[in-house]
TrEMBL record:
Cross-referenced Pfam families: HSDR_N_2 (PF13588)
Domain Type I restriction enzyme R protein N-terminal: 35-144
Origin organism lineage: Bacteria, Pseudomonadati, Bacteroidota, Cytophagia, Cytophagales
Organism of this sequence: Nibrella saemangeumensis
InterPro entries associated with the record: HSDR_N (IPR029464)
This protein's name: Type I restriction enzyme HsdR N-terminal domain-containing protein
């Protein structure tokens, strides 16, 4: 897999029917490793190991209904009160982070109302804070601290 602009971590990969799978410590099972999954696993590890986000408050591949369509969020972190805190959209490293990606996570956030959004392709990362009352967005230099 491609080297990312994220800290390396100890991971477990195994072959199932000739295809590579990576162990997802949140879902506690092996999942098919795709370029996007490779990014997602790195982001989850970063949030837990470097930013001390509680593992129990992170959900991957969660479902949501948007305009009567079923969608999936890549990573959703909840605060200690069970409210959405940080929403992450992961793309494969070869996918550019365009306005369409920002639009996608913004649509998902109409459902979740998280105060922080991140988009990443593992090489480039954008994090922003959302003030839902004033409908303003501010880009951050780093991921928000979990409080």
């Amino acid at each position: 897999m491609e080297t990312l602009n994220l800290p390396a971590f100890d991971y477990k990969i195994k072959q199932i029917e000739g295809k590579p799978y990576i162990f997802d410590s949140l879902r506690r099972k092996y999942v098919r490793i795709t370029p996007e999954e490779w990014v997602r696993q790195h982001i989850v590890h970063l949030l837990i190991s470097h930013y001390q986000y509680p593992k129990s408050l992170i959900r991957t591949e969660g479902g949501l209904t948007l305009n009567q369509l079923q969608k999936r969020t890549d990573v959703l972190v909840f605060d200690r009160h069970g409210k959405p805190f940080l929403l992450v959209e992961c793309k494969a490293p070869d996918i550019p982070l365009t306005q369409a990606v920002f639009d996608q996570i913004a649509r998902y956030n109409h459902v979740h109302h998280a105060p922080y959004l991140v988009i990443t392709n593992g090489l480039t990362h954008y994090c922003c804070g959302i003030d839902h009352q004033t409908a303003t967005v501010s880009f951050l230099d780093d991921f928000p601290a979990f409080t």
